[in-house]
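Q: Joint fold for the lines below.
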Amino acid sequence: MTAVTSKNGGAGRPPGEDLLVETRGLTKRYGGRITAVDSLDLAVRRGEVYGFLGPNGAGKTTTLRMLLGLIRPSSGKARVLGEKPGSPEGLSRVGALVESPAFYPYLSGKDNLRVMARYAGVPWWRVDEALMEVELGGRAKDKFRKYSLGMKQRLGVAAALLKDPELLILDEPTNGLDPKGMADMRALIRQLGHGNRTVLLSSHLLGEVEQICDRVGVVRKGKLVAEGTVSELRGREGLLVRASPLEEALYIAARLAGVEEATVVDGALRLIVDPERAAEINGKLVSAGISVSELRPAEQSLEEVFLELTGRETI
Amino acid sequence: MGASFSAEFLKLRKRPSTWVLALVWLALIVLLGYILTYATFASIPEDAAPPGMDPDAFLQTLYPENVLSNVLAGFSSAGGGPVALILGALAVGSEYSWGTLKTVLTQRPSRSRVLLGKVFALGLVLVGLVVLAFVAGATASYVVSRLEGVAADWPSAGEILRALAVGSLISAVWTALGAFLAALFRGTPLAIGLGMVYALLLEGVVGTVLVSNEDYDPYRKFLVAENANSLINYFGSAAPEGLGPPDSIVEPTRAVLVLCAYAVFFVVLAVLLLRRRDVT
Ligand SMILES: Nc1ncnc2c1ncn2[C@@H]1O[C@H](COP(=O)(O)OP(=O)(O)O)[C@@H](O)[C@H]1O
Ligand SMILES: [Mg+2]
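A: Joint structure:
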């Protein structure tokens, strides 16, 4: 049994909601064997900073590439800003940085952006604005190949900002940065996500998503295993009960009203239930002849949730 | 398309390898087409020449009146093909090696537009290179005419324009081949390697084999070099008897059509490859 069940991202969504990214059964297979993305249903709402969280190899990049029309899905559907992925109409309102930033090494940062601005069909003065936004103005004339990784990443974000896009897709933009670079990049993303802009940020770092994102989708082996706000994901509040006999306590507690889930963890009872009801539950257990030696609120750490969702196999 | 063209042109203009290729190309034209011949034959006293060889006949090929055929000869043999091929292979292949294709494609343009913008920008660069090649050849031939004390007798403007067109067409085929191979192999090294094998080895060896038997003529007519030579020969070979390129079996008009068809064919293949494949 999995301790945390999936918050279903696909069902129960109010109709007419403004979804900037919507996928249905999106699947990508490589060869016969590898299923990089497996029937993924993803929904990113207007204005939110959405964290696409999963360990390495989970299929994040593959998904984002499909959303941008770089690779074709094996099956399933995707809509980005209401358009087919990769269509010029859709792309004109999306900015993206997928995997490591790739630019022409022999051109300066500024010339690289001039090239990209021409491809994007945006006026030349957007180049300077974008450079300012990522605070790269001072080194704009240096060749790209001379840039540090942090500067390369920022140039990648600048290129994504050229179109002043409604939707910003960033694929692990802090990868490989030192702590200071990471902090700067996160601050930048938070700032970019202010206002109307929607950000789809992929990451394998829980803390990062926790810091930046409004809502999180957790992906594992190509499948979306949970979706919700950070506090929703974490908010599996409950009680920890030490009682004996344990088996009997489990049997009774699992049948009490309001208890969503009851499991045995490390010789104690773990209940997913409103902690306010501690006294009531204590009473019910005691009156059933069970001795309760400890009863306290227990919150699952997000770390724990994440590990359970993405890696640790539970019985 | 215009946006894609101007983006590509900016890249080509600022790319050092474009200028290196241009310099190599001009150096080859001047070195192989003029300096070597001149150094060899200008110093030979008339009576010391090997029997059947008239140094003056060789020197004459270097005079201004023969500049078009002398420079064009370099388009099929001396470096012209490979240089154009490398230019095309680099322009397409580097987008894969640097991973910039994804950056470009996520900006907005469709894949066909990216490639066609490249093709037109490359075309413009090629015309520039061809003009430079003729300017270099003309300069060298003028110097020779002064050294030899003969009057400079230049070809007509119409002929010059036609030679520019022929030179551009021949290089365009090689550039398109390079671009196609780079799209096929999603990178530069293999495209340049195999392109060279084709340009230098296959065309040459197959051409020599096919030339030996008239039965093979229908096949020979499809070789790029054969068609190119047909157009080059059109400007007359200034080379002494028996030393110029072999007479071509292809009509010039047909050669123009075949070469255009090759260029278009390679570009279309490259577009199809780029459109169909995942960019990973
Ligand atoms: N071009 C490809 N060919 C084969 N397998 C691939 C290819 N790209 C990705 N994969 C596989 O798909 C899975 C998901 O990869 P990816 O989307 O890059 O994960 P993430 O970005 O979450 O780290 C991995 O197992 C990876 O090995
Ligand atoms: Mg990835």
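Q: Anything notable?
A: Chain A touches chain B at residues 65, 68-72, 86, 88, 91-92, 94-96, 98-107, 111, 114-116, 118-121, 156, 159-160, 162-163 (CB under 8 Å). The pocket of magnesium ion (ligand 2) is lined by residues A 60-61, 99, 171-172 (CB under 6 Å).
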